[in-house]
Design brief:
The chain is an all-alpha fold and about 375 residues long. Helix content is about 75%, strand content about 0%. It has a domain at about 60-275 and about 310-340. It has helices at about 1-45, 50-55, 60-85, 90-110, 115-125, 130-155, 165-190, 190-200, 205-220, 225-255, 260-270, 285-295, 300-335. Helix 3 packs across helix 6 (about 130-155).
Length: about 375
């Protein structure tokens, strides 16, 4: 009988749930221990090199932050290419604000993909198109990561043999190749039928419908090579702006080093930040700076100061996203009783933002002034 089947399934579900929850808590605690342990080491290095911090040329730091902001503008424009290809009516102002909100949540949530999830949910709430919204975020993030691995792979050829552990270099190469193959598989949809077969046997018809919808969106958005190439080039521009910000911080702390030595090490340190062993790369990013900049002749004390300043600049940029999120939330609540205007969010997607932007949105292009 249905009731018996349900009661028979219930104990299994309740027994698995606590185990999964316990394992998740353990992983989170380990990541917190790693994050704060590494940060304690970095802060100790900064404390023992207070003179480096005192003698920083602080006039260059705001300019470095502006370069980071401009990098975010370029990334938002990159994302907008996919959004507009899918005929989702969102202005550049809206996309930039959502990207900043995503950066804010990536900083405060205990997962590196938290900000991307926020972007996908917010876009789906605004447009009512869950599959297209999710697909656009996945592809935009994937191409951004692919460009990082590509730059690191290219610059690895300029390094002396043994300067960086061979296993790390090989991992970078493999990640780049795997990324290219992954885009091809998603474009062709080769993985869908095996997944559909498994889901059908498990009678997961609802999930199967969602998976097919997402695959359709992925295939459509990945079908134009020219658009993907433009997104890849924009990713290189965004990476260059972020590297420029890091270089400004470096020359604010110490004498300049040759760009030929700086760029490869920063590219590799960016890859190291992706290791999912910490919270928001806390401690990992700083340790990567100390290790890789050390290979370029930067002392550990100087590198630790550079890393701490870059961390503060990242938080400052995330704070802008926090302000945007707060303003949208306040505006949503104030307009809620009046019903507001525009298209209501999908009933199946929680709205993270107001139904209208704070100001009348007009389509905007990338500033011609990270």
């Amino acid at each position: 009988m249905p009731s018996d089947d349900h009661s028979a399934d219930q104990p299994g579900e309740t027994s698995l749930s606590p185990a999964r929850s316990s394992r998740s808590r353990l992983i989170l605690r380990l990541r917190l221990v790693i994050a704060f342990g590494l940060m304690a080491i970095v802060i100790g290095l900064v404390a023992s090199n207070r003179d480096k911090l005192i003698n920083v040329n602080w006039k260059l730091i705001p300019l470095a932050w502006l370069l980071m902001l401009l990098s975010t503008v370029v990334k938002s424009f990159r994302w907008g290419l996919l959004v507009h290809q899918s005929a989702m009516d969102l202005s550049f102002r809206r996309l930039l604000g959502t990207y900043l909100v995503g950066a804010f949540f990536s900083t405060i949530l205990p997962t590196s993909v938290g900000g991307d999830a926020v972007r996908a949910v917010d876009t789906a709430a605004k447009t009512g198109r869950v599959a297209d919204s999710t697909s656009s975020v996945l592809i935009e993030r994937g191409i951004g990561l692919l460009s990082i691995f590509g730059m690191a792979s290219a610059f690895a050829y300029t390094l002396e043999v043994g300067a960086v552990p061979h296993a790390f270099i090989m991992a970078v190469y493999l990640a780049f190749v795997a990324g290219l193959l992954g885009l091809l598989v998603l474009r062709q949809g080769w993985f869908m039928e095996p997944i559909a077969l498994v889901m059908t046997r498990l009678r997961l018809h609802g999930l199967l419908a969602m998976a097919r919808s997402l695959q359709t969106a992925l295939s459509e958005q990945l079908w134009r090579p020219s658009l993907l190439m433009l997104m890849f080039l924009l990713s290189l521009v965004a990476n260059a702006l972020t590297m420029g910000a890091t270089y400004l911080v470096l020359i604010a702390v110490r004498d300049a080093i040759p760009l030929a030595a700086f760029v490869p090490m920063v590219a590799l340190s960016t890859v190291a930040e992706l290791l999912p062993i910490s919270i928001a790369a806390l401690g990992v990013k700083e340790s990567a700076y100390i290790f890789f900049l050390g290979l370029a002749g930067v002392s550990s004390g100087e590198a630790s100061v550079i890393a701490i300043i870059m961390r503060v600049l990242t938080w400052a940029l995330a704070l802008v996203g926090g302000v945007v999120f707060l303003a949208r939330t306040v505006s949503s609540r104030s307009e809620g009783p009046r019903g507001g205007g525009g298209r209501p969010p999908s009933k199946h997607v929680p709205a993270l933002a107001d139904e209208r932007d704070l100001e009348q949105e007009q389509p905007a292009g990338l500033p011609t002034a990270d």
